[in-house]
Design goal:
With about 180 residues, the protein is mostly helical. The chain has one domain: 2-Layer Sandwich (Protein Binding, DinI Protein, Chain A), CATH 3.30.910.20. Belongs to the skp family. InterPro entries: Chaperone_Skp, Skp_dom_sf.
Amino acid sequence: MGWRFDVKRFVAFLTAAFLMGLAGAALAEGVRIGVVNPNKLVERSPQYDQVRRDLEKEFQQRNQNMLDKQKQLKVLEEKKATDSAVMSDVGLNRLEQDIRSHRRHLNLVKEEFREDLNVRRTEEFNKLLRHVSEVVHQVAREENLDVVLSQGIVFASQRVDLTDRVLERLREQFKAASEKK
């Protein structure tokens, strides 16, 4: 039972040491620090809502197509349940093949839909994150901040929390962009 190197603990230790050193340097040199909550910025920004609506609109037709295929499959399955007793073996086999074919096609359509939606969602989310980051940088420069932290913060006073100020800027930019359209 010997000593074991734990990467997670080592990284946590280095992060804590860095933050303590940063805090010490900030106190010694008057470094100005700001904090943002990136999840709050993204989830409460009007741009996030717009991205969500745009994706819904973009995938609405494909979603409807998928729902129509589900209804077709359900009709075939109901036909089998109600008519199988009076159908010939050939007719029943043909219907079962048709059901399997529809089910395979529906599963393929669903999988393609999920993959395409995930790709587009990731693309749009990454664009939004880049935009949020740009706005954080703008606000930090305007407020003469030297460091902006975003994760691993246990506590931050309102004085250093930029989240609401950045969120307000995002709303202003969204409103200005909406008025131009």
